[in-house]
Amino acid sequence: MDFGLVMEYSWVLLILIGLEGILAADNALVIATMVKHLPEEKRKKALFYGLAGAFLFRFGSLFLISYLVNIWQVQAIGALYLIGIATYHLLKKHVLKPKVKETKTSVKKGSGFWATVIKVELADIAFAVDSILAAVALAVTLPLTSLPQVGGLDGGHFAVILAGGIIGLVIMRFAASYFVGLLDRRPGLETAAYLIVGWVGVKLAVYTMAHPEIAVLSEGFAKSAPWKITFWSMLLLIAVGGWFLSKEKSQDKNKSAVKDVS
């Protein structure tokens, strides 16, 4: 591959690593919430099963999507899914804003061990689909390579998606605590992450509408320079805006919150 191609693939992989990091932190937060009512020993086992399930579902989704990615109906479903979860999250957080009230009994009482494990695995499935679809949407408009195809995917596209998936799992296992802390200090980054997920869904929708069987857009539009510049400029704007617009919580407030909990 020439230098320009390597740089384009490296840039997409870098963006994917950042997106996977935020989604991995979100995944870790959800799983931690699900298992917090269990005793410490069972909690560790539930987290272990959750991580094992994340590996299985992530790779299962990857190999399944590699054979279905060129079917426009699958692309359309993927676009709707990504836009849908982003819209749901943003509406739930900024519009609906449900009041969360936890009593002492609700905190202590929870599902049994295996029921909790099942809930964790279901969450893993949702996050696996989310992660792989976001990775596919980022990778499919990259230039084709001379690498052998895997299913319906170009070998280079598959390699980027595979690398992003593995890195996401590594982040979830070893660096989730950092991202959880980052989200806690800058809560606005979570909103930025879901805006990015929604924008990636728009990209997949554009790719779908440019499919030869639909031809709402010209076939070359999804790979054209104007669309690529528009997509990456907006993505960069969301990321930078999310960082600067998310107010960092002061250490004094965090310390007082810790004191209140203790």
Automatic annotation (TrEMBL):
<feature type="transmembrane region" description="Helical">
    <location>
        <begin position="158"/>
        <end position="180"/>
    </location>
</feature>
<keyword id="KW-0472">Membrane</keyword>
<feature type="transmembrane region" description="Helical">
    <location>
        <begin position="47"/>
        <end position="65"/>
    </location>
</feature>
<keyword id="KW-1133">Transmembrane helix</keyword>
<feature type="transmembrane region" description="Helical">
    <location>
        <begin position="229"/>
        <end position="246"/>
    </location>
</feature>
<dbReference type="InterPro" id="IPR005496">
    <property type="entry name" value="Integral_membrane_TerC"/>
</dbReference>
<feature type="transmembrane region" description="Helical">
    <location>
        <begin position="112"/>
        <end position="138"/>
    </location>
</feature>
<dbReference type="GO" id="GO:0016020">
    <property type="term" value="C:membrane"/>
</dbReference>
<dbReference type="InterPro" id="IPR022493">
    <property type="entry name" value="CHP03716_TM_YkoY"/>
</dbReference>
<feature type="transmembrane region" description="Helical">
    <location>
        <begin position="71"/>
        <end position="91"/>
    </location>
</feature>
<protein>
    <recommendedName>
        <fullName>TerC family protein</fullName>
    </recommendedName>
</protein>
<feature type="transmembrane region" description="Helical">
    <location>
        <begin position="192"/>
        <end position="209"/>
    </location>
</feature>
<comment type="similarity">
    <text>Belongs to the TerC family.</text>
</comment>
<dbReference type="Pfam" id="PF03741">
    <property type="entry name" value="TerC"/>
</dbReference>
<keyword id="KW-0812">Transmembrane</keyword>
<feature type="transmembrane region" description="Helical">
    <location>
        <begin position="12"/>
        <end position="35"/>
    </location>
</feature>
